[in-house]
Task: inverse folding
């Protein structure tokens, strides 16, 4: 029910999100999250490497987990790879549900798990010509840990 | 066994992957990393900080104690930073 | 910085949301919430009455509160009034920030406060010709209470 | 004083608003509601369940104990259900 895609191509968050609700009268809430490349500290480009095969498998597993946890009525997850420029959209998570609580929670959950469990790696290219692999953020691990079931 | 390397692990080893035949005694992920680190200075540099190494066996994340069993594909990489 | 609008006209969530990030390189996260009319239990239409003047004032106050609580880089809140049909969008909350935590939190906060502090009233028209004013939901009060500062 | 009524308060009173001059002793929101309830059966029906009545004085939500002071506009309505 949640569609997942891994692609180098750009996507249109508005069109993807609107498609979830088209012709439906049971959806009361649509939440979408779009992540963009920020031009922090002289960033020129961001290149995303991924693990073909496992990436698709992990995205499908994360989506299935969200569907098991919340009563959802549709969803789309798109994650780009390749070279992106400041302002470009990297990732979309759009979720439809009858009520807003489930839609917000599932969208946040998917983003937190994408950040910590999907095999993507970001390399920054800076204005001085240097490149550096992005280090994982502790705050992402903390955010993901919220969803651990005890 | 098909080895795959990503991000700076790939860069330090100098290749995105290789097909290797570990010795019979190499039965766990940790033992595999120990053995790989002996293959070249690049392998040693890539695997020096084990706390920064993550492993997937046949596309499933595993810890260092995981057995290799009949693994066909082992991927080695830094912590992920997508999203 | 957060624009608020109260209007009878339809809006396009995708266009409104995309406008927040256009030409910006400092925005890393855009969260949008769109609320739609659900056709529960034979609902034919939903009419929203509001308190002109106070509605605009309350929306501006709620938006200012969100800006005070989180580091936001833009936002749009649109709430419709008048007669709406199943599937129609009622409300949009779109928020831009550097990071996703602030964007998600501010969007949820704005929705919770809109539900409990903006002077709108919904009347349902049903297939049997009857009409009924929608009763407030306890869950909305509970959600809004999350944000009370102690 | 300008009174405004919304939703089923408006329907039960039978008008969206009226201009009234409360007696001098009516100094709080609660006293105003008590006085309004005496004006007609419609007013009485609209205001019978005080737990379901909300009030804004000059576009600001207030409780029953709030003073009317120099209020120009008092709006009376059920709990809001927007969003």
Result:
């Amino acid at each position: 029910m949640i569609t997942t895609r891994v692609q180098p191509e750009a996507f249109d968050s508005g069109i993807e999100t609107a498609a979830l609700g088209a012709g439906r009268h049971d959806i009361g809430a649509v939440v979408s999250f779009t992540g963009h490349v920020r031009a922090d500290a002289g960033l020129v480009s961001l290149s995303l490497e991924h693990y073909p095969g496992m990436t698709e498998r992990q995205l499908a597993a994360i989506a299935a987990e969200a569907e098991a946890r919340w009563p959802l009525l549709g969803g789309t997850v798109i994650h780009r790879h390749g070279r992106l420029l400041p302002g470009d959209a990297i990732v979309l998570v759009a979720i439809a549900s009858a009520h807003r609580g489930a839609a917000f929670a599932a969208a946040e959950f998917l983003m937190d798990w994408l950040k910590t469990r999907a095999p993507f790696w970001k390399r920054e290219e800076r204005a001085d010509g240097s490149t550096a692999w992005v280090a994982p953020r502790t705050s992402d691990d903390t955010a993901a840990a919220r969803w651990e079931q005890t | 066994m098909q080895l795959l390397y990503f991000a700076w692990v790939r860069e330090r080893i100098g290749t995105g992957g290789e097909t290797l035949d570990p010795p019979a005694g190499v039965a766990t992920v940790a033992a595999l990393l120990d053995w790989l680190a002996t293959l070249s200075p690049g392998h040693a540099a890539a695997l020096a900080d084990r706390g920064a190494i993550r492993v997937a066996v046949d596309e499933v994340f595993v810890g260092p104690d995981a057995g290799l069993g009949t693994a066909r594909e082992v991927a080695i990489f830094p912590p992920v930073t997508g999203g």
